[in-house]
UniProtKB/TrEMBL annotation:
A GO CC term assigned to this protein in UniProt: peroxisome
Protein's recorded name: Amine oxidase
Subcellular location: Peroxisome
The enzyme's E.C. designation: 1.4.3.-
Positions of the Copper amine oxidase catalytic domain: 315-723
Native species: Linum trigynum
Length: 753
C-alpha cells in the first residue's frame, strides 16, 4: 500500500493531468458506460450531494497479476465443472492467467480507484464526474490438458472480491466459457520433464546402451526432454511427444559437476508424454563419451578444482536515503516515469501503462503493454540430433514458469524491491516464486556534459536508470530479460544470454565445420537466438484514442549535382507505412534505418508530430534456407519488424500453441495477410531481434553474458531534452587518486637482479 506521503504526491500529480481533446473525453464516457452498463449499483455505496463515493475500496487493479487465492479458485472451479470423476482426475493445468480487461476498464481504474489517480479521465454529467459503483469482476483464463483424452481446452472463469478466497474448501468462481481446441499440444511442464527422465533411465534397452558406453550408474545420467517440433506427419499433435537429449556426469556424488560436458550421442529415444512410455528406441551409433574435461566445472574455487582471484576488492552500492522510486502495489513511479508491473507464465515480465509526467502537459502515455512474447533457438548443424534443436522457449516451455527466485546470488545490487510470482503447477496446486522480479536503480555513467572552453565552467550530470528484470533457465541456457527506463525519456529492452553450451560428441579424429571444438571429443554447434518483443503502443494517446502511425526513416546520400557540389550531403528520408504488408521490414545499418511511432494529432513546439522511435541494436535474420522445417512454425523470423493494428486475440507470433504445430505460418505471418490499414490506429509493433552464436573456447565451461536488444527513444516527443533538469550528483564525487602501491612494480628480470 502507498504511504500517506505517496498518496499526497500522487494526488497532486493527478490534479495536474487533463484531457486536451473533448472528443477523447466523449469516447471515454461511451466506453465506460458500455463496459459497466450491466453492473447494478452496489447496496454499500453511499451518495452525497456531490458525487457517489464507494464505501469500500477495490482490492486489485484490473491489471494486477492473479493472486495465489484467485488461481486456486479458478482451478477449483474448472475442476468442479468436470462431468465425471475420471475427467476431473485427468485435468492437468498448463497455465492460469489474468484475462486482461479492455483498455477503457483500465482507464477507469486509473481514474478513480488506483494510482496514478486521474479524475480527469472520468466522464462527466452536468459538470460533475460520474463515478461508477464498481469495476467489472476479474477473470482468469486457464489452459487445461486432459491426460486421458489428450485434449487441450481453454476455460474462462469469473472471479470477484468475494470469490478470491475459498471457504471450507468450496470453490467460488463461475465458468464463463470453455472450449476444446483441436489439433494442438500445449506447452510442456517441469513435472512432465522429471517423469520423462525417470522413465528413460528405467528403460532396460537404454540401460544396456549406457553400459556399452561404460556407464552403469544411472545416477550419472541426465535426460533433458526436448519438444519434437514439427518435421513430418510423425510429429503431428495427435500424440504428445518428446525427444530427449542425453548427458552424463563424471561424478555421481558431486552435485556441482557439469553434466553438460559429456553428451551421449548415437541413441534415439522418443517418449509418449501422455502415457509416459518410450515408444521408439534405437542405439544407432556408438560414439565414445568425451573424456572428463578438467576445465568442465564453473563453481567457486576448490569446488571446480581451481583457485579464485584474490585481488577483487569489495564494491558496495548504497543509497543511504533510500531509493528514488515509489511503489504502490504493482504501480511504480520514478523520475517522471510511471507504469505497472505484471507477470505471466509464458512471457514472464509484462510492463503496462507506460507514461511520462511532463510538467503542465500532465501524464503522457507512451505504451499500453510491453513484453517478450516468443523465443526461437535454431541450431545450424544438419546432423542428428542437432537439426531437431529448434526450441520455442516461450511457447513450448514458458519463460515465466522457468523464472528464478532472485534470493539466490547477486542478480541485483543496491536498494531492491522484489515482486513474487504465482503459478499453477501441473496438477493444479499453486506455487510461488519469491523475489521473482527485481526493481532497482543503477548508475549508468555520464548522462550529459559540457565544458565552456572560454570560461572553463563545466556542467556534468550522471545518468541513473530504473531497471525491471527477471531471469529464467531453460535447460542449459539462462536468459535475463530487462526493461531500463532512463531520465532522458529512453526505454531500453535488453536480453542477457548466459549459461552452458548445448554440446555434441565427436568420434576420435572427427571434425565438423558446423561448430567449434572446445575440448577433446567435445564440440559446440553454431546456433542463433531470436527474441520477439510485442509493443502495444499508445504514444500521446489518451484512453479511447487510436491516433498512432509508423514512419520508416532511412538516411540517403544526396546525388551529385547543384545540391551537393561538395559531395558531402546526406539527409533523412521518411516513408509512411500504410498497410501491414508494407510494414514487413528488415534492419539496414547502411542507411541507419529506424522507425518512428507518431501521434497524428499532437505536435510539439516546432509543429512536428510527437513520436517515439525504435532504434535497432545489433541484429540478424535466420541463417537457413526458406525450406527449413523450423520456419514453418517460425515464419515471423523472416523480418525484423512487423506492424499490426491492435487485435485482442493476436498475442503470440507463432500462434498460441507452437508445440508440434503442423500449420505452416500460423500467427503473425497469417494475420498480416489481411493487409489491414495501419495509417492511424492502435499500433502494435513486433520487433524480432537476435544474435548468431559461433561458440568460442572462452564460452566454456560457462558463457560470459552476451547482450542484445533495442531502444525506444523520444523523437519530437519533448520540446527539449528532458534530462536538462537532472540535478548535479549529490554522491561522493570528489576527485580521488588511486591508492599508490606500497612497492614499485618492477619488471621480473629487474627484480631478480
Amino acid at each position: 500500500m502507498a504511504t500517506a506521503q505517496e498518496k499526497a504526491t500522487l494526488s497532486q500529480t493527478a490534479s495536474e493531468n487533463s484531457i486536451s481533446s473533448k472528443s477523447s473525453a466523449a469516447a471515454m464516457a461511451t466506453l465506460i458506460h458500455d463496459s459497466l452498463s450491466d453492473s447494478a449499483p452496489s447496496a454499500t455505496t453511499k451518495t452525497t450531494a456531490a458525487t457517489p463515493v464507494m464505501s469500500r475500496a477495490q482490492t486489485c487493479h484490473p491489471l494486477d497479476p492473479l493472486m495465489a487465492a484467485e488461481i486456486a479458485v479458478a482451478v477449483a472451479t474448472v475442476r468442479a465443472a468436470g462431468k465425471t470423476p475420471e475427467v476431473r482426475d485427468s485435468m492437468r493445468f498448463i497455465e492460469v492467467v489474468l484475462v486482461e480487461p479492455d483498455k477503457n476498464v483500465v482507464a477507469l481504474a486509473d481514474a478513480y480507484y488506483f494510482p496514478p489517480f486521474q479524475p480527469s479521465l472520468l466522464p462527466k454529467t452536468k459538470g460533475r464526474p460520474v463515478i461508477p459503483t464498481k469495476l467489472p469482476p476479474r477473470q482468469a483464463r486457464l489452459v487445461v490438458y486432459n491426460k486421458k483424452s489428450n485434449e487441450t481446452s481453454i476455460w474462462t472463469v469469473e472471479l470477484s472480491e468475494v470469490h478470491a478466497a475459498t471457504r471450507g474448501g468450496h470453490h467460488r468462481g463461475k465458468v464463463i466459457s470453455s472450449k476444446v481446441v483441436p489439433d494442438v499440444q500445449p506447452p510442456m511442464d517441469a513435472e512432465e520433464y522429471a517423469e520423462c527422465e525417470a522413465v528413460v533411465k528405467d528403460y532396460p534397452p537404454f540401460q544396456e546402451a549406457m553400459r556399452k558406453r561404460g556407464i552403469v550408474d544411472m545416477d550419472l545420467v541426465m535426460v533433458d526432454p526436448w519438444c519434437v517440433g514439427y518435421h513430418s506427419e510423425a510429429d503431428a499433435p495427435r500424440r504428445r511427444l518428446a525427444k530427449p537429449l542425453i548427458f552424463c556426469r563424471t561424478e555421481s556424488d558431486c552435485p556441482l559437476d557439469n553434466g553438460y560436458a559429456r553428451p551421449v550421442e548415437g541413441i534415439h529415444v522418443l517418449v509418449d508424454m501422455q502415457n509416459m512410455v518410450v515408444i521408439e528406441f534405437e542405439d544407432r551409433k556408438l560414439v565414445p563419451l568425451p573424456p572428463a574435461d578438467p576445465l568442465r566445472n564453473y563453481t567457486a574455487g576448490e569446488t571446480r578444482g581451481g583457485v579464485d582471484r584474490s585481488d577483487v576488492k569489495p564494491l558496495q552500492i548504497i543509497q543511504p536515503e533510500g531509493p528514488s522510486f515509489r511503489v504502490s502495489g504493482h504501480f511504480v513511479n520514478w523520475q517522471k516515469w510511471n507504469f505497472r508491473i505484471g507477470f505471466t507464465p509464458r512471457e514472464g515480465l509484462v510492463i503496462y501503462s507506460v507514461a511520462y509526467l511532463d510538467g503542465s502537459q500532465g501524464r503522457r502515455p507512451v505504451a499500453h503493454r510491453l513484453s517478450f512474447v516468443e523465443m526461437v533457438v535454431p541450431y545450424g548443424d544438419p546432423n542428428d540430433p542437432h537439426y531437431r534443436k529448434n526450441a520455442f522457449d516461450a511457447g513450448e516451455d514458458g519463460l515465466g514458469k522457468n523464472a528464478h527466485s532472485l534470493k539466490k546470488g547477486c542478480d541485483c545490487l543496491g536498494y531492491i524491491k522484489y515482486f513474487d510470482a504465482h503459478f499453477t503447477n501441473f496438477t493444479g496446486g499453486v506455487e510461488t516464486i519469491e523475489n521473482c522480479v527485481c526493481l532497482h536503480e543503477e548508475d549508468h555513467g555520464i548522462l550529459w556534459k559540457h565544458q565552456d572552453w572560454r570560461t572553463g565552467l563545466a556542467e556534468v550530470r550522471r545518468s541513473r536508470r530504473l531497471t525491471v528484470s527477471f531471469v529464467c533457465t531453460v535447460a542449459n541456457y539462462e536468459y535475463g530479460f530487462f526493461w531500463h527506463f532512463y531520465q532522458d525519456g529512453k526505454i531500453e529492452a535488453e536480453v542477457k544470454l548466459t549459461g552452458v553450451l548445448s554440446l555434441g560428441a565427436l568420434q576420435p579424429g572427427e571434425a565438423r565445420k558446423y561448430g567449434t571444438m572446445i575440448a577433446p571429443g567435445l564440440y559446440a554447434p553454431v546456433h542463433q537466438h531470436f527474441f520477439v518483443a510485442r509493443m502495444d503502443m499508445a504514444v500521446d494517446c489518451k484512453p479511447g484514442e487510436a491516433f498512432n502511425q509508423v514512419v520508416e526513416m532511412n538516411v540517403k546520400v544526396e546525388e551529385p549535382g547543384k545540391d551537393n557540389v561538395h559531395n558531402n550531403a546526406f539527409y533523412p528520408e521518411e516513408e509512411l507505412l500504410r498497410t501491414e504488408s508494407q510494414a514487413m521490414r528488415d534492419c539496414n545499418p547502411l542507411s541507419a534505418r529506424h522507425w518512428i511511432i507518431r501521434n497524428t494529432r499532437t505536435v510539439n513546439r516546432t509543429g512536428q508530430l510527437t513520436g517515439y522511435k525504435l532504434v535497432p541494436g545489433s541484429n540478424c535474420l535466420p541463417l537457413a534456407r526458406p525450406e527449413a522445417k523450423f520456419l514453418r512454425r517460425a515464419a515471423f523470423l523472416k523480418h525484423n519488424l512487423w506492424v499490426t493494428p491492435y487485435a485482442r486475440d493476436e498475442m503470440y507470433p507463432g500462434g498460441e500453441f507452437p508445440n508440434q504445430n503442423p500449420r505452416a505460418g500460423e500467427g503473425l505471418a497469417t494475420w498480416v495477410k489481411q493487409n489491414r490499414s495501419i495509417e492511424e490506429t492502435n499500433i502494435v509493433l513486433w520487433y524480432v531481434f537476435g544474435v548468431t552464436h559461433i561458440p568460442r573456447l572462452e564460452d566454456w565451461p560457462v558463457m560470459p553474458v552476451e547482450h542484445v536488444g533495442f531502444m525506444l527513444m523520444p523523437h519530437g516527443f519533448f520540446n527539449c531534452s528532458p534530462a536538462v533538469d537532472v540535478p548535479p550528483s549529490t554522491g561522493d564525487c570528489e576527485l580521488k587518486d588511486a591508492v599508490t602501491p606500497t612497492k614499485p612494480i618492477q619488471h621480473p628480470l629487474i627484480a631478480k637482479l
